[in-house]
Amino acid sequence: MARSLILVALISLLPFLSASSPSLESPKGRRVLVLLDDLAIKSSHSLYFGSLQSRGYDLDFKLADDPKIGLQRYGQYLYDGLILFCPATERFGGSLDQAAILDFVDSGHDLIIAADANASDLIREVATECGVDFDEDPVAMVIDHIGYAVSDTEGDHTLIAADDFIDCSVILGNKKIEAPVLFQGIGHSLNPSNHLVLKVLAASPSAYSANPKSKLSNPPSLTGSAISLVSVMQARNNARVLITGSLSIFSNRLFRSSVQKAGSSTRHEKAGNEQFLTEISKWIFHERGHLKAVNVKHNKVGEADEPAIYRINDDLEYSIEIYEWSGGSWEPYVSDDVQVQFYMMSPYVLKTLSTDKKGVYSTSFKVPDVYGVFQFKVEYQRLGYSSLSLSKQIPVRPFRHNEYERFIPAAYPYYGAAFSMMAGFFLFTFVHLYNK
């Protein structure tokens, strides 16, 4: 009876265990928890949610204060991604808190945070831990009297038509975003000590952050292109985070709106919000820019088996296969800047790997004339791509006593000196004995 109960319990946990870690063999079927301040957001932002579901994501919608919220069960994560569309939440329900969210990211999972003018301290603190600082003024919004959208008729010019995108096709896709993105919300700055966070959409040089309902009495704390509207972070474990100060940027209203930037005669029938957020979501959830390395091999030239030890001055070959997830399958990754180090305390050999453009990278070199414990190291970090950090340890020994050459050409002068001395001694002895 007890065994049957345990079996039933294990079977009931299978769906959760299968979703406990992100399976990048196929992103489809991945579970994402969406926390909302109000369930009405589910319908007002349905176009964005629909784009995720059409790509195979299983969205679990819950109110942010739901007492049953939990990211883990029995030590296993139930979700692969987390979307926080609950900027006003002061406290999460269930077992979810700031520490749990940060642990979620530290475990390699992805996160999207959308704030707005009434962002709570909790949301601000989570963003700060990810390298982003929202404007400290709780009523400040991004204002632009030059780069505003023409449809902003209120006079405060808080509806911005932003088009200062990051120049990275890995993050934003190969198709250029022609129409500006409509943004209405709060700005943030990047922590200069955090080199992992990137500004994806920046404000124009004429923008500033202030209270739109009052006159400026002091200089604004955030101005110009230093204001980031949308930022991303890729952690060292390749977890990805998206942070923006606007919840409405994801809304159906802005997805469907036409846009014309002030001072421009071009009017776009549709704002760039849908294309921009769809493409960046693909990157956040590892549908693009994710690399994997397999089949790391090394061997002596002319041999196929991997040795347990090398000898100094051996000629060796090193190869590795690198693939990129294309959204539907693994495709060969082609680049000319992948390098391998033969490393002991410092690199003794640094070689750029050549590729056959089918995913295989290889090179050959001579083991340095230094013995000890070396490592083959590949450290590959490029903008937009997940980082690769591979190492493989191998000892290197000196020549054994019976492996040296019998006669070393460099020692011929010494051989000659020895034999000439012997010949001279023999001649001297002969002359001394027989000379009268």
Automatic annotation (TrEMBL):
<feature type="transmembrane region" description="Helical">
    <location>
        <begin position="412"/>
        <end position="434"/>
    </location>
</feature>
<comment type="function">
    <text>Subunit of the oligosaccharyl transferase (OST) complex that catalyzes the initial transfer of a defined glycan (Glc(3)Man(9)GlcNAc(2) in eukaryotes) from the lipid carrier dolichol-pyrophosphate to an asparagine residue within an Asn-X-Ser/Thr consensus motif in nascent polypeptide chains, the first step in protein N-glycosylation. N-glycosylation occurs cotranslationally and the complex associates with the Sec61 complex at the channel-forming translocon complex that mediates protein translocation across the endoplasmic reticulum (ER).</text>
</comment>
<comment type="similarity">
    <text>Belongs to the DDOST 48 kDa subunit family.</text>
</comment>
<dbReference type="InterPro" id="IPR005013">
    <property type="entry name" value="DDOST_48_kDa_subunit"/>
</dbReference>
<keyword id="KW-1133">Transmembrane helix</keyword>
<keyword id="KW-0256">Endoplasmic reticulum</keyword>
<comment type="pathway">
    <text>Protein modification; protein glycosylation.</text>
</comment>
<protein>
    <recommendedName>
        <fullName>Dolichyl-diphosphooligosaccharide--protein glycosyltransferase 48 kDa subunit</fullName>
    </recommendedName>
</protein>
<dbReference type="GO" id="GO:0008250">
    <property type="term" value="C:oligosaccharyltransferase complex"/>
</dbReference>
<keyword id="KW-0812">Transmembrane</keyword>
<feature type="domain" description="OST48 N-terminal">
    <location>
        <begin position="31"/>
        <end position="284"/>
    </location>
</feature>
<comment type="subunit">
    <text>Component of the oligosaccharyltransferase (OST) complex.</text>
</comment>
<dbReference type="InterPro" id="IPR055459">
    <property type="entry name" value="OST48_MD"/>
</dbReference>
<dbReference type="InterPro" id="IPR055457">
    <property type="entry name" value="OST48_N"/>
</dbReference>
<keyword id="KW-0472">Membrane</keyword>
<feature type="signal peptide">
    <location>
        <begin position="1"/>
        <end position="19"/>
    </location>
</feature>
<dbReference type="Pfam" id="PF03345">
    <property type="entry name" value="OST48_N"/>
</dbReference>
<keyword id="KW-0732">Signal</keyword>
<dbReference type="Pfam" id="PF23358">
    <property type="entry name" value="OST48_MD"/>
</dbReference>
<dbReference type="GO" id="GO:0018279">
    <property type="term" value="P:protein N-linked glycosylation via asparagine"/>
</dbReference>
<feature type="domain" description="OST48 middle">
    <location>
        <begin position="298"/>
        <end position="435"/>
    </location>
</feature>
